[in-house]
Specification:
The complex is a heterotrimer of chains A (about 230), B (about 300) and C (about 130). Chain A has 8 helices and no strands. Chain A is an all-alpha fold. Chain A has one domain. Chain A is globular and about 55 Å long. Chain C is mainly α and about 130 residues long. Chain C folds into 2 domains: about 80 residues, Arc Repressor Mutant, subunit A (Orthogonal Bundle), CATH 1.10.10; about 45 residues. Chain C has a two-stranded antiparallel sheet with strand order 1-2. The radius of gyration of chain C is 19 Å and the shape is elongated. Classes of the chains: A mainly alpha (about 230), B alpha/beta (about 300), C mainly alpha (about 130). Chains in contact: A-B, B-C.
Chain lengths: ~230, ~300, ~130
């Protein structure tokens, strides 16, 4: 697989969708971080955190549709695929490109979080392991949606997966609370606890993501029509 | 032996309501092949297979000596493709597209690209969405031509172009042929274009290859004969001859196997051959389709 | 200099393109625009300039060579024949023979040279009409 080609394909997508990306991946999180930092113990902080959380979730829905479905809808796919690239570069560029954008938002959250935690009475430093698990869930949902989108190129199924992912992403919080090992308890603990349960869950998330990516590549390879 | 720019052996592709049925084709290096046939005949499908947009179900495709689809990345480096249903990114400029292709094609020739911008009268800073149809077609062609590909595969390159733009495009395509090792495969419903610049004409209908022959021989083998048939005479059954409708004394015969002996055959049957006329490619096209589909001409 | 631009094809000309090209070349040679021994544009050059397929130009050149108007040398391309009139000489001689015979007959009929010339012009015009 040609790394240089993949990079150029990625940069192409980032350029073409620069405004929505700036909006969803940068502006929106920042719009959440500000009230979360300076809102005190009020609903402003709550809203800020919600916005921050949602900005990650919206990406799960938006990126596959904008970068993958639209290529087909706008008939630009033959143009791209007539260049000296194979399905490998194309698939990798879409996956990595989307994950990079997702990563940017995560980075913003990670950078802002210590400050937010320090100012919050509800959140404690123990929140990190749980957040890692939550982000891990988002990544799994993201990768699954991307994979289905790439393989099916179907607006319908991407919508379905995207919406399901969004719903499930919101369900993560209550699920963490009700299902053993009740990881949500870390939320309020002062100690940052990377215990066995957390590690196992994170491990599962990583493995599932990798399996989905590998499966996507395998199915892309078998594809016969790249229109 | 000259290298073959293209060699298709028994190419097959099945769709729910269409089947490409064992196409065998050869295009020698340095030649132009014009692909003609009714809509839905399989021209686009064949070209998509050659560029790797679609994979064949059976048979082999060798493009510039390499096997498709296994070698597609190497092949596409030397191929320039443009099709009627292909679009560029509307929000980006022509210059952006040029930079993008340049970053991916190692053989991009910026000087040549500039010359093409001039020739096609395009402004690089214009966004694609603001271009007229003709400008968009020329921009797409520019992107396919600028890296000087050894093989150009073009699906309907002159559709919707005004006479000036069409002249510019045909001129540029012919310029490509100044290099003796560069070849062109193009499909067009404009039979005049095909008749004018093709070295080889290939006719496809309903997924099957009807004919693939050098243009001069192809046009030479088709003739229209204007006949004067007295009431006493009857039209002879001759191989490869189709009679037009009409019942009077003046009849028309069309044939794709013309030879002087035919005129003798008519005269011996008491029929006067008023004239033997060549046919334009468009007339041949219609006659071929009627023949292969059994529709009376 | 024999330039591709010297040849202009017409869309309304009903003849096949290779015949049009042949016709133009023969005209250029007869008028002296393309001098005897002159190097001709290469087949590819002419094809590109006229926006016509190489195979058509190739056929035109082959037929022109067959008629003795041009000659093609391996590795050197094509050029106008050294004595372009050469291929037409037998026709000229034949014409002279016919005219001599006509003059003798006219003398037998008591026709004056002017009367003979008048009849010749009339017939020449009629024949020109037919071949159009």
């Amino acid at each position: 697989m040609n790394v240089a080609m993949t990079k150029h394909l990625m940069l192409k997508d980032l350029y073409l969708h620069r405004y929505p990306i700036l909006g969803l991946a940068l502006a929106l999180p920042v719009a959440g971080i500000a009230p979360a930092l300076f809102g005190g113990e009020t609903m402003w902080r709550q809203m800020g955190l919600t916005i921050l959380n949602n900005s990650l979730i919206y990406l799960i829905f938006f990126l596959p549709i904008a970068t993958i479905i639209m290529e087909r809808r706008n008939h630009t796919l033959p143009f791209v695929m007539s260049l000296p690239v194979s399905y490998k570069e194309y698939t990798a560029a879409k996956l990595i490109g989307s994950l990079v954008v997702f990563g940017i938002t995560c980075l913003l959250a990670v950078l802002a979080l210590p400050a937010i935690v320090a100012r919050s009475e509800q959140l404690a430093r123990g929140v990190w392991p749980v957040l890692a698990v939550i982000i891990g869930v988002y990544v799994v949902l993201f990768v699954v949606t991307l994979g289905i989108c790439l393989v099916t190129e179907s607006f319908f199924w991407t919508m379905v997966l995207g919406l399901l992912s969004v719903v499930f992403a919101f369900l993560v919080f209550p699920l963490l609370e009700s299902i053993p090992p009740h990881l949500i308890e870390h939320w309020t603990s002062e100690r940052i606890v990377w215990d066995g349960e957390v590690i196992v869950v994170l491990g599962i998330e990583v493995l599932v993501s990798m399996a989905v990516i590998a499966g996507t590549f395998a199915l892309q390879k078998r594809k016969k029509d790249f229109l | 032996m000259t290298t073959q720019a293209l060699r298709l052996v028994g190419l097959e592709k099945a769709y729910p309501d269409f089947k490409l049925d064992g196409i065998n084709l050869e295009l020698p290096e340095g030649s132009v092949m014009g692909l003609i046939g009714p809509n839905g005949a399989g021209k686009s499908t064949t070209m998509r297979i050659l560029v790797g947009l679609v994979q064949q179900d059976g048979g082999q495709a060798f493009v510039l000596g390499r096997s498709m689809p296994s070698d597609q990345v190497a092949v596409k480096r030397d191929v320039g493709f443009a099709s009627e249903d292909m679009r560029l990114y509307a929000q980006a400029s022509i210059r952006w597209h040029m930079d993008f292709v340049r970053s991916i094609h190692p053989d991009w020739d910026e000087n040549h690209a500039q010359a093409l911008l001039q020739r096609f009268d395009l402004q690089p800073h214009h966004k694609v969405k603001g271009l007229s149809h003709g400008q968009r077609v020329k921009a797409t062609l520019l992107l396919a031509l600028a890296h000087r590909p050894k093989l150009l595969i073009l699906d309907e390159p002159t559709v919707g172009l005004d006479p000036v733009a069409r002249h510019e495009v045909l001129g540029e395509l012919m310029d490509v042929l100044s290099d003796t090792d560069r070849s062109i495969l193009f499909s067009s419903q404009n039979t005049q274009d095909v008749e004018q610049i093709s070295d080889i004409i290939t006719f496809i209908d309903r997924g099957r290859l009807i004919e693939s022959q050098d243009k001069e021989s192809y046009l030479d083998s088709w003739r229209r004969l204007r006949l004067e048939v007295p009431t006493s005479a009857s039209l002879p059954e001759l191989a490869g001859v189709v009679y037009g409708r009409g019942k009077g004394t003046l009849r028309v015969a069309t044939t794709n196997r013309f030879e002087p002996a035919m005129t003798q055959a008519f005269q011996s049957a008491g029929i006067t051959v008023q004239s033997v006329e060549p046919m334009t490619l468009e007339e041949i096209f219609l006659a071929t389709v009627h023949l292969s589909r059994g529709v009376p001409g | 200099m024999a330039l591709p631009d010297d040849i202009v094809l017409s869309q309304t000309d009903p003849r096949p393109m290779y015949q049009q090209i042949m016709g133009r070349v023969k005209q250029l040679v007869a008028l002296g625009d393309w001098a005897p021994g002159q190097q001709m544009p290469s087949i590819r050059q002419l094809a590109v300039a006229l926006q016509v397929s190489v195979i058509t130009v190739k056929r035109a050149y082959l037929e022109l060579e067959r008629e003795g108007v041009i000659v093609t040398r391996q590795g050197k391309g094509s050029m106008v024949v050294e004595q372009p009139g050469a291929s037409l000489r037998p026709h000229r001689e034949e014409l002279r023979e016919h005219l001599v015979a006509a003059a003798r007959l006219a003398a037998k009929l008591g026709m004056s040279p002017d009367e003979l010339a008048e009849q010749l012009v009339e017939i020449h015009n009629d024949t020109a009409e037919d071949s159009r």
